[in-house]
Amino acid sequence: MENISELKQHLRAIEQTRQISNAMYLLSTSRMKKSMQNIDYNLLYLKRLRSTIKDIISKTKHNMLSDPFLELTEGGKALFFVISSDKGLCGGYNSDVVNLAMEKMREYPDTVVYSLGLKGTEMFVNHGITPEHSWYGASQRPSLHLARELGNNIVDLYDDCAVSEVYIVYTEYVNSAVQKPVCKRVLPILRRDFDDVEYENKYTADVLYEPDLQTVFDRMAPQYIIGMMYDVMMQSAASENAARMTAMQNATENADKMIAKLSEQINSVRQLIITNEITEIAAASNVQGAV
User: 93 and 239 in contact (C-beta within 8 Å)?
Assistant: First the structure.
């Protein structure tokens, strides 16, 4: 059995760890709520944008739109854009999204990896995969400026035929207790991608586009990609903070249990010491009385 000084030292160390884990829990909770607000705002924008794109591609004939964004090419390179975190202490958040990306990448003979997040990049390197491009420092504070930069980068690669398909692997935020890794195709834009979208305006008359249908779609498609990039970045940020919040909450609860157990051990050791001292005093008194 450890002596009482060692137990007290162990207890102080756990109490200090508990303070850190509890502070990180509160911080993650605050950041998660802020990310959720941005998600709601962007979803309204994406809903309107997706409804407009569906209206264009579903009510026009295939030969009316000649656009590379709508053409599915077989056999080319597939770009996988993987979003992870820059920091740890968030449970299986990073490993789940990287494992899903690697599972999907096995289905394609030739792939290109872009990584947003330090932990994901490190995991890919450990598996012998070197991302072609990596970005750090954006997981905690995703911005529309970065989303526009990444979205334009993706569009340029696709326009130059450097890749034939683009996928984003990220963690979708369901609620504070549930986050699931998702692989979503970004390009090409296919009609079936909008099956879940409701028409915002129902009409039967022909629509006039200014200046023309092709120009309108060519301008909307990149904005759609940028809006989607911003959405998945915000979803990932909220999921990361939710995962860290859960992990730190569990760590705090485990620390509370260990503190209670160590307190009981300290009390038991203290009681044993007192009992032994009383027994020694009583034994000494008996010896003196016998003399």
Answer: yes
Helices (H), the chain: 4-58, 93-105, 118-126, 144-159, 213-290
Region 255-278: what's the mean pLDDT? 84
- Decide if pLDDT at 14 tops 60: yes
Q: pLDDT band for position 97 (50/70/90)?
A: very high
Three-class SS of 270-281: HHHHHHHHHHHH
pLDDT tens, position by position, 37-87: 777 777 777 777 787 777 777 766 555 566 667 776 666 788 999 999 888
Pair of tokens at residue 130: 């070197």
pTM (predicted TM-score): 0.79
| Residues 176, 10: Cα–Cα separation, whole Å | 33
The answer to whether 68 touches 158, Cβ cutoff 8 Å, is: yes
Average pLDDT, the chain: 81
Number of Cα atoms under 13 Å in the Cβ half of residue 82: 37
Q: How far apart (Å, rounded) are the C-alpha atoms in residues 133 and 112?
A: 9
- What is the model's pLDDT at position 205? 65
CA gap 166, 168 in Å, rounded: 7
**DSSP per-residue codes, 101-161:** HHHHHTT-SSEEEEEESHHHHHHHHHTT---SEEE-S-SSS--HHHHHHHHHHHHHHHHTT
Long-range contacts of 147-151 (CB under 8 A, 24+ apart): 147/226, 147/227, 147/229, 147/230, 147/233, 148/226, 148/229, 150/81, 150/116, 150/229, 151/222, 151/225, 151/226, 151/228, 151/229
